[in-house]
Amino acid sequence: MANNEESRGLKSLFDWFANRRKSGSPNSERQEREIADGLWHKCPKCGVLSYTKDLKANQMVCGDCGHHNRVDSDERIRQLIDANTWNPLDENLRPTDPLQFRDRKPYSDRLKETQEKLGLVDAVKTGLGQINTLPIALGVMDFRFMGGSMGSVVGEKLTRMIEQATQRRYPVVIICTSGGARMQEGMLSLMQMAKISAALQRHRDSKLLYIPVLTNPTTGGVTASFAMLGDLIIAEPKATIGFAGRRVIEQTLREKLPEDFQTAEDLLKHGFVDDIVSRTQLKATLAQLIALHQPLPTTTPNMVLWETMKLSSATVE
Q1: What DSSP line would sit under 72-104, residue for residue?
Q2: Secondary structure element (H or E) that encloses residue 174, with its range
Q3: Which of 76, 88, 257, 282 could, after both became Cys, cross-link 261 (CB 3.0–4.6 A)?
Q4: What is the pTM assigned to this prediction?
């Protein structure tokens, strides 16, 4: 008799758990519905729920742990450029498929699908604008577009922007985020490394400022070229920055790498990065650096020497 009662009690307990699993908790359903509606954002680092409006006001930086959530190119421009000063460059420059590349689907189809889904032409936006009233040429990479990979259009747009900046004597800032060169364009993609680097050298020969901002992630051919050619190199906290992937390096060296390997903090410690700046302070930091490095007036050396001699003579008299 006792065994029958125990079995009935055990069965009813199982039924209760089964029914609860089917019905689900009302609280969990309500929480999932609110998150799905976009009212709340769960931090992938610490798990804290933040009101989405407050998170955007803090430039998508978690107020609890400081985690920098990924943002798109349009949001980056809004965060950095003064209102009504943005002048985009080469908006109609579109990628093609010169190699007729095909993996699981043709490259041309992949491009079309990505463009329609995101409303982007390619993985970078370039333009001229102002940061705290100071003129600037800005390039912003977008990781959503095929991992921010560097194809021919990315290289061409950045090169043209740098040449415009050299002609106008503007400083250049590039927000870097990329998985590297775009394999679907083969050697044509790798050629962009040299093209952009050459444009940056001409910019430097004109004694003008270039600042790359390395965000999460910055890897591959982008790291091996313009991302590391800055006069001052800034990184966001905890950003992954490197060339080859961690697993490839470990397999090659047959050694276990440190946990902080290829992070912004590790690169700062070894001198590859000049400073780590939170996104909430990035605009103010860039404005200060640009103000301190304004280009000299375009006067000839002889005129500068003559003005100096006149000033010295006046002081002696």
Answers
A1: -HHHHHHHHSPTT--EEE-TT-----TT--BSS
A2: strand 172-178
A3: 257
A4: 0.82
Alpha helices in the chain (DSSP H): 2-23, 26-36, 52-57, 73-80, 107-118, 152-168, 186-205, 220-223, 246-253, 264-269, 279-292, 301-316
Cα 65 from chain centroid (whole Å): 20
Q: Which residue in 111, 118, 122, 112 sits closest to 88, CA to CA? A: 122
The confidence score (pLDDT) of residue 229 equals: 97
Rounded Cα–Cα distance for residues 156 and 51 (Å): 39
Q: pLDDT tens-digit profile of 86-112?
A: 999 999 999 999 999 999 999 999 999
SS (H, E, C) 103-154: CCCEHHHHHHHHHHHHCCCCCEEEEEEEECCEEEEEEEECCCCHHHCECHHH
Would you tell me how many other CB atoms lie within 10 Å of the CB of residue 43? 18
> Taking a C-beta distance cutoff of 8 angstroms, is the pair 124, 175 a contact?
no
Instruction: Kindly list the distances between the CA atom of residue 189 and the CA atoms of 95, 173, 181, in Å, as whole numbers in the listed order.
Output: 11, 21, 6
Strand 124-131 and strand 134-141: the pairing is antiparallel
> To 5 degrees, how large is the angle CA 171–CA 176–CA 177?
165
Per-residue pLDDT at 34: 47
| Position with higher pLDDT, 214 vs 34 | 214
Question: Looking at the predicted structure, is the pLDDT value of residue 158 above 90?
Answer: yes
What is d(CA 120, CA 143) in angstroms, rounded to the nearest whole number? 11
Angle made by CA atoms 286, 243, 104, in degrees to the nearest 5: 110
**How far is it, in rounded angstroms, from Cα 151 to Cα 124?**
10
Contact 120, 145 (CB under 8 A): yes
Distance in Å from the first CA to the final CA of the chain: 122
Cα–Cα distance between 277 and 216 in angstroms, integer?
A: 13
- What is the rounded average pLDDT for all residues in the chain? 88
Cβ atoms 154, 141 nearer than 8 A: yes
In the predicted structure, residue 183 carries a pLDDT above the cut 70: yes
